[in-house]
Amino acid sequence: MKKLLLLLMISISTMACADKATENKNQPTASVAEVAQKPSHAQGEALHDEKCTNCHKSEVYTREDRMVKTMMALEHQVNNCMKGPAKAEWTQPETTSVVEFLNDRYYKF
């Protein structure tokens, strides 16, 4: 009788493990291509935090009466701030990374 109970318990635990393994296989996982396509804005965020937040905080991006309403306006505003208050001497790729960071984080154009 004890052997039968032991066998029954082993069978049940084995089936439970097999079900769990099957369940995990059916979960969607990100492909390498999907991960590669997801932008990383670490550089843009770092540049933004270094220069832009000396003058203003993120509320300027989220306020109801914000002036930036298009992607072109966002690019223009970043360029104006670079030449003015921020005094940022960024390369074009660095500027683009800041614009993309701001767009993805706040504007969503």
pLDDT < 50 runs, ≥5 residues: none
Task: Give the CA-based shape.
Answer: elongated
Report on the biggest sheet. none
Helix content: 55-70%
Would you report the number of β strands? 0
CATH structural class of the domain at 39-107: Mainly Alpha
Using the CA coordinates, give the radius of gyration: 26 Å
Please render the helix and strand layout as text:
Elements: H1 2-25, H2 32-37, H3 42-51, H4 59-62, H5 71-83, H6 92-107
Helix pairs in contact: 3-6, 5-6
Key structural traits:
single chain, 109 residues, mainly alpha, Cytochrome Bc1 Complex, Chain D, domain 2, 67% helix
Describe this structure in words.
The structure is a single chain. The longest helix is centred in the first third of the chain and has 24 residues. The chain has a domain of 69 residues: Cytochrome Bc1 Complex, Chain D, domain 2, CATH 1.10.760. The protein is 67% helix and 0% strand. With 109 residues, it is mainly α. The chain has six helices and no strands. Helix 3 crosses helix 6 and helix 5 packs across helix 6.
Quick rundown:
The protein has 109 residues and is mostly helical.
